[in-house]
Structures are given as structure tokens and as C-alpha cells.
Amino acid sequence: MTSPARPAPPSYVVRTAEESADREACFAVRKQVFVAEQGVPEDIEYDAYDAGALHVLAVREDGVPLGTGRLLYGEAAAERTGGDPTVGALGRLAVVRDARGLGVGVALVRAIEDAARARGLAAVDLHAQTQALGFYARLGYEAYGPEYLEAGIPHQAMRRSLE
To answer: For residue 69, which of 99, 111, 121 has the smallest C-alpha distance?
Structure first.
């Protein structure tokens, strides 16, 4: 007896969220993942950095948002990267539950890294939830420093050189 064929994963694109509708889709994904699923207080999920950040959005071919992430660079990133202007900060990476395991997270990280390279950055830092350390390590990120709590969730800093 053969098992039934699995349907092909939906196709999607990753793009920079430049239109207000795309940015709103990014915020909706973050609300679904961080606020509803993980219990992050809404008042700390959205911050002053959102306005100047580069946001990326993964969207299914039928328009359904699947994931998002953001890149901070320049002065906005300095606080999170030890003040080094050549290092960007990847953050707020979120993939909706139904799209996990389809490569969406990898595609979002690579799009953010491409945007960082385009801005002349030499490396990208991130604050990984400890349960996601393996995911980022597989993408070339190296953990450094002690584990700490952010929004009540254990995190660790990681960095990847883009050179």
C-alpha cells in the first residue's frame, strides 16, 4: 500500500514591504505569531524602530501573508549591535504556523541579508529565541554572549558575517 502523494507546498514570493498594505500584513503576521501564539505584550512588540526599518514580507501566490522580518541599519541598529555601523540587526522574524517547514524563514533571512549587503553592511546580528538557535546556526549564524530574557522569552545574540 502506498501513501498518498503530499500536495506541493504553495508557491510564495518574498519582497520588500514598501506599500502600506504590505507593512500592515507584516504587522499582522507579527501579531499572530508573537502576541497571540507566544504571549508577547502588544505594547512591546511594535516599537519606534518599525518606522525606519526595512521590512520583508513572504506572501503566497494568492496574496496570503506567510511571514515577515525586518532589518535595522545605521543608527537604529547601533544599540543592538554594539555600536558598529557596519553591522545590521535582523529582527521580528515570524512565520505563520501553517507555513512553517516550507522554507519561508530561510527565504526571509536570505532576503534580509541581501538587503544588508546592498546597504554595504559587513555582518548581521540577531537576538534569537533559544528554541530557534539551531535554525539560525544552520544559516551560518554564531551565538555569542550569555543567554538572557527578552519579552520573558530566553534569547541569545548571534552574528553572521556577510563577507
So the answer is: 111
Distances (CA, A) of 54 to 13, 69, 153, 154: 16, 8, 24, 25
Please count the other Cβ atoms lying within 10 Å of the Cβ belonging to residue 36. 11
Q: What's the rounded Cα separation, in Å, for the pair 3 and 17?
A: 40
Within 31-97, residue ranges assigned H as helices are 42-45, 75-78
**Residue 46, all three cell numbers:** 511594535
Residue 80 lies in a domain: yes
Cα–Cα distance, 26 to 51 (Å, whole number): 12
Residue from 153, 131, 127 nearest 41 by CA? 153
**98-126 per-position pLDDT tens digit:** 999 999 999 999 999 999 999 999 999 99
Total domain count, the chain: 1
